[in-house]
Amino acid sequence: MSDLYRESPAVYTSEASEALIPSARKSLPRILRDKPKRRLLYLCLLGVLALAEFFILGLVRRTFVFYSIDNGNLVVEDRMVSKTGSREKDIARYVEEVLLGPVSLDSSPLFPKETRLESLLYRDGVVYAGLSESAALPSGYGRDVFTGLYTLNGGIKRNFYYVKDVLIFINGHESYSEKIREILAGIADN
Question: Where's the GerMN domain (predicted)?
């Protein structure tokens, strides 16, 4: 084996490896030779992969409205939620996300944490959502039940263009639907 090394010493020295690098660079495409262009290419490739993953997973951006604990101002959160093939399932997933509450610690939930979505039906542009009995209790942050229901109603209509009306039931009883419709009709008139 030592004879092999003696016959071709240039192959195993650092000088020989340095001599190979420029020839390897010449065989690369021109864009890969320049370091800033190569980095830009990597970033573009990473962006294309992220976009492909976004479309493959079927994510959609939804907006959620909560209220600040400190001053009661509106706080809007954007979340990426997976999209299904069913409008009803998409709306149900949205309502369940609202019931989970805000991501920000400075925002208050719309409903008590025990509140669950018991049923949801979407027919002819109308959403019928049934919430558990705990939705009738104040959230504990000075918000009344009506504010939570009104905000949920507006969130569903804002995120799902095909929804014309939302009827929310608490423990099987319709809740504030007429009052919400009156307010929305007054806003539409202005």
Answer: 69-174
